[in-house]
Design brief:
Number of strands: 13
Radius of gyration: 16 Å
CATH class: Alpha Beta
Enzyme class: hydrolase
CATH topology: Glutamine Phosphoribosylpyrophosphate, subunit 1, domain 1
Function: Catalyzes the hydrolysis of the gamma-glutamyl amide bond of hercynyl-gamma-L-glutamyl-L-cysteine sulfoxide to produce hercynylcysteine sulfoxide, a step in the biosynthesis pathway of ergothioneine.
Bound molecules: glutamine
Shape: globular
Helix content: 10-25%
Structural class: alpha+beta
Number of domains: 1
GO molecular function: hydrolase activity, acting on carbon-nitrogen (but not peptide) bonds, in linear amides; transferase activity
CATH superfamily: Aminohydrolase, N-terminal nucleophile (Ntn) domain
Largest sheet: 7 strands, antiparallel
Order of helices and strands: EHHEEHEEEHHHHEEEEEEE
Organism: Micromonospora haikouensis
Strand content: 25-35%
CATH architecture: 4-Layer Sandwich
Protein name: Gamma-glutamyl-hercynylcysteine sulfoxide hydrolase
């Protein structure tokens, strides 16, 4: 199952987030500590999205190949600094394709999105939910995967002007109701606020003055990491994080 992280805080290099920690996301790609529901490594791709320090929409770099073998990312990560980052490494669910476009972060406008988990009974279990989307959205999914459909469902609510935390919570509730036992750990950010769910998978939170980091696994031994219990919705900014119960589906 994929591993992901989101950071908002003082500008840091992508290298400091992705490579330098003792249990960094790059290390988690081949030695994750907490894989659930199958899978041993996260070798089916990686993606990084970051907000340019000068402002503007996020930039992404995604590939459907292992992060550890990418020859471009180390230099890019050393040279790039950002105060808001969302990154993921992917272990494709059995039956789902390995493609550059199947890797998070998914994006539109100011938004970056990631899913760690699986929709059970895919795709039939969520046919009715998918049917509520405009056909154009279905025909232009990033990839024929559960994660891309989850993004389309959240994005549909964001486009309608819903509050991001409400859009994420409602999507988790309706997918959990349609596809019980799904694992629906989501991350959504606009570069200022991070909305995260713990729904079937591990999630950890680290807060420091003016900075917050959410990650599938703590990436170092800092005692400041807190495990977020299952069934929670986290809304975090540089001012702090609020953890609430996810509404039931
Ligand atoms: N099910 C999603 C996919 O295949 C996410 C995978 C994961 O969390 N491992 O892309």
């Amino acid at each position: 199952m994929c591993r992901h992280l989101a950071y908002v805080g003082p500008p840091v290099s992508l290298r400091a987030l992705l490579y330098d920690p003792t249990h960094s996301l790059v290390r988690q790609s081949w030695a994750p500590r907490d894989m659930r529901g199958g899978g041993t490594v996260n070798a089916d791709g990686f993606g990084v999205g970051w907000y340019p320090p000068g402002g503007g929409e996020p930039v992404r770099y995604r590939r459907g190949t292992p992060i550890w073998g990418d020859v471009t990312l180390p230099g890019l990560a050393a040279a790039t600094t950002s105060g808001a980052v969302l990154a993921a490494v992917r272990s494709a669910t059995v039956g789902m394709p390995v493609l550059d476009t199947a890797v998070a972060p998914f994006a539109e406008g100011p938004w970056l999105f990631s899913h760690n988990g699986v929709v059970r009974g895919w795709p039939d279990a969520v046919a009715a939910l998918a049917g509520r989307l405009p056909v154009r959205d279905l025909l232009t999914l990033d990839a024929p995967t559960d994660s891309a459909l989850l993004w389309a469902l959240v994005r549909h609510r964001l486009r309608a002007g819903e509050d991001p935390a409400a859009a994420v919570a409602a999507t988790v509730a309706e997918v959990a109701a349609a596809a019980p036992r799904s694992r629906l750990n989501l991350l959504l950010t606009d570069g200022r606020t991070v909305v995260a769910t713990a729904a079937g998978h591990a999630l950890s939170l680290r807060q420091a003055p003016g900075a917050v980091l959410l990650a599938s696994e703590p990436h170092d031994d800092d005692p400041g990491w807190q495990a977020v219990p299952d069934g929670r919705l986290v809304v975090a900014t540089t001012a702090g994080a609020r953890v609430a119960a996810l509404p039931a589906g």
